[in-house]
Amino acid sequence: MNIFQVFLESGFVAQIIMIILVFSSISSWAIFFKKLHDLKSIRRMNQNFFTSYQIIKNSEEIEKQLYLLDKSSYGKILKSGLEEFKTLKTSSNPKKVELADNIKLAMERTKISEIENLENSLPVLGTIVATAPFLGLLGTVWGIMEAFLEIRARGSAHITVVAPGISDALITTVYGLLVAIPALVFNNSLRSRIIKLDSELDKFISEAFANLKKKLVESEEK
Prior knowledge:
This protein has 7 helices and no strands. By secondary structure, it is an all-alpha fold. The longest helix is centred in the C-terminal third of the chain and has 63 residues, at 159-221.
């Protein structure tokens, strides 16, 4: 008996539950591969930027490279920091050094925006993880209920009477678990990669902020 036979021989409610679970499964696989591709692309662009950043420490020279590396998360963060740095540097405010934290805040805002873009669609994946087992459980309860209703209606507990309901109960449970388990692995894998990137960006912001603040102080002392 193949999966299509099982579907066709199931009850109407079990079929509805299985259709929802199949669409949930397709969505979770699509989200996983899309996000995996996005993360790999971002990581490659970040590595390209970071290589240039390690070679060119002068902020003006780095800025010239940003138009080429504008798709990099590091590049976008540093660009926002440099824009705030230039605003403060050209400002006539005598307390502009005390406002240097604005540079860090600008970079952190950009980082939050980058992380939010990466986390887009993950709530859908989380919802699939949470609801798939319950949909399977609903099918289980519904199938068992149908089996008992058949026993009451026919006055017999013969295997041919209860088998359809029990079959629906088991197959929807299997479908629910087959959807929930991979979705859980995908969700945890993607979130751990994003958390790691978030930590790396925090480290970069601290380093870039220290350099820009130092340059701001030096410009004031001249």
